[in-house]
Amino acid sequence: MSKTTDVLLRVSKLVKHFPIKQGIIFQKQTGAVHAVDNISFEVKQGETLGLVGESGCGKSTTGRAVLQLHRPTSGSVIFDGVDLVKAKGNDLRHMRRKMQMIFQDPYASLNPRMTVGEIIGEPMLIHKIAAQNEIEERVANLLNLVGLNPAFSTRYPHEFSGGQRQRVGVARALALQPSFIVCDEPISALDVSIQAQVVNLLEDLQEQFGLTYLFIAHDLSMVRHISNRIAVMYLGIIVELADSEELYLKPLHPYSQALLSAVPIPDPIASARRERVILKGDVPSPVNPPSGCRFRTRCPIAESICAEVQPDFREAQPGHFVACHFADQFI
């Protein structure tokens, strides 16, 4: 990985396992869900790193583990020079001001008993960065910033549409003036007509405030639009990471090729000529992942070595990382 000084977030060998326990009184651990298994990546200052993959591959868990909403099983998360995994108490509380999250569901992430003004102002009260008489003005500015009428601050979440609620979520994330935001599928629950508006808003805010995003999504066309680089996850691991355009033009991992072959193309002639990759079988259980390469049970080019040896996450080309024994044949 890069050794440049403009790296804001460096994740190394991150692991998050959720224990499976049995028994009513004396609970005994009988296994673990391997949600995130030994992944490494970095996010540079001011860029957007897209994180894509099928549902259940560990994307959201990765985002939450980075922010320490889920405490990692092992590994390190170096943010702005501080290892968040080792940080506790006031040290971690201080770092939380610099990193925020936009949640996937705008209906479940807002407290229905609080007004919009109280929801956006609450982070400022908790972190004591503004007096009570200053919060109202700041909330009005934030609502105006995300395209909502400041007069809406006295309304409750149920009085808003899904797109408006997500704008409230964006305003809440900006309340503490963070430098890094995890966007956990912020548009997946919205109508298609609203998705572009929210994405354009996020891009405008990034340009205005120099924000850095980890953008989690499963809409590959939207990820290509907003991301500088893209990481592809499968069953708890990152199988490929490259610049956005390079990944779309020349994917080196069979799973990435299968995902991209499913992206709709507006040109019917080009769409008819394109070779569609249909994966066989289902995603294995994260409780008992396959040996060797985790994608081998569905891979069209798998051989015996794939079951015996786990491929290294290596740099196949400058800035293009892939975990596949046979990636060189696609270069």
Topology, please?
Elements: E1 7-22, E2 28-44, E3 48-52, H1 59-66, E4 74-79, E5 82-83, H2 89-96, E6 99-102, H3 116-126, H4 132-145, H5 162-174, E7 180-184, H6 192-209, E8 212-216, H7 220-226, E9 229-234, E10 237-243, H8 244-249, H9 254-261, H10 268-273, H11 304-308, E11 314-317, E12 320-322
Parallel strand pairs: 3-8, 3-9, 6-7, 7-8
Antiparallel strand pairs: 1-2, 1-4, 4-5, 9-10, 10-12, 11-12
Helix pairs in contact: 3-4, 3-5, 4-5, 5-6
Please provide a written account of the structure:
- Helix 6 (192-209) links the parallel strand 7 and strand 8 (212-216).
- The two termini are 20 Å apart.
- Helices cover 31% and strands 24% of the residues.
- With 331 residues, it is an alpha/beta fold.
- The chain is built from eleven helices and twelve strands.
